[in-house]
Amino acid sequence: MSEVKIVAAAEAALTKLTSLNKKGEYEQQVNDLTWVLASFKNDGNPEGVFQKVAEAKSALAELKAQKPRSVAKKLMDQLEDALA
To answer: Distance between CA 57 and CA 69 in Å, rounded?
Structure first.
């Protein structure tokens, strides 16, 4: 579990969720990821980042199941790799 990979995955998930958050349906995930990334930069503890990336991965997987073209496979692979 690389801290560099998980932070990069969190930032990628945050970017995607922010772009999808036009109606506010991903507001909680956006806020959580923003908070844990800032927290990680302050204390260096990646535990919260791993938890929130896993939650973001689940939300994006649900969206991908409904609308396959809305979430890139590359992003899903990046999240999976970072969590492995």
So the answer is: 16
